[in-house]
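Async update (no meeting this week)

Hi team, since we skipped the sync, here's where things stand on the single-chain job. The sequence we agreed to prioritize is pasted below, unchanged from the tracker. I ran it this morning and attached the output directly underneath so nobody has to dig for it. Comments welcome in thread, and please keep replies under the output.
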Amino acid sequence: MDGNAPPRVVVAVDAMGGDFGPAAVVPGAVAAARAEPGLALALYGDPDALNVLLDGLGARELPVEVVACRDRIEMGESPAAAVKGRPDAPIVRATRDHREGRVHAVVSAGSTGAQVAASLMILGRLEGVDRPAIATGIPTLNGRFLLLDVGANVQCTPEHLLVFALLGDEYARRLLDVATPRVGLLNIGEEPTKGTELCVQAHALLRDAPLNFIGNVESRHLLDGAADVVVTDGFTGNIALKLIEGFGGFLQAAAREFMAGGAADAGEGLRGLLHRLDYTSTGGALLLGVRGSSIICHGASPARAIQSAVLAAGRMARLDLPGLLQQRLAARP
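Output:
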């Protein structure tokens, strides 16, 4: 064994989740294990289906364990009731194993509600966190910014947004390699008095917090790279995220149509644009504020998105991101 090799990190993957199920999840997870030495997989789901796929991929030489789960949570089920009533579902088993230390992170493209519920009910919240937030990286003209919350909390208080900002700031430092993240508050104008009462009160809290707070950020400046971290409530954040996703899809379709029309001289630049707009390079969103690393993937995630999410989960586990977030919250004045 290489004495300089990093310790093995085990990422639990809900292999049955998502629109495409194991057909996309297993190849994506296997690709991540092949790309990252020291990364092991625990695939949760139907062992018969998973073993057939692993054999077809020639993955038996990889550190992959199949954890047999005979139940599953459907998209329309009540998340909390499903977590309680389906203990053998992949996301429930994987999250429980994460709590017990048998795996170091969880990745799923299944029901977001069930994944959030399992994380809250099994892992629990970090001390100082009342409401965990879903955070996702979004491409800009010069890199990426972190947007949170994008759907975990429809209603928030100013204190919730402050905690989101602290969590997002630490994430940006550790995973986006931004030494002093610029933190902004999503709002309808730049003035401190603009927006709802929530925005006005949150602005005052953020202004006085130990953050590089740059003030309000209008939605038209999100993709300019105006901030490294942008906080908002989950209702507004989810609308913003889906608008950006939809516009990205529109641009991708328009660019492909343009290239198909014979604009060969612009092809290289457009291919670069398509790559930057491709959400599969990010893979998933992270539930920030729980005692563990839980990566939430889009239901329509193809294999490449799963690969990106598993690799990101491995990086978070090696950093012990939840531990770093807890330290940051404990240092609040």
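Quick observations from my side:
The chain has a mean pLDDT of 91.
The radius of gyration is 20 Å.
Reply here if anything looks off.
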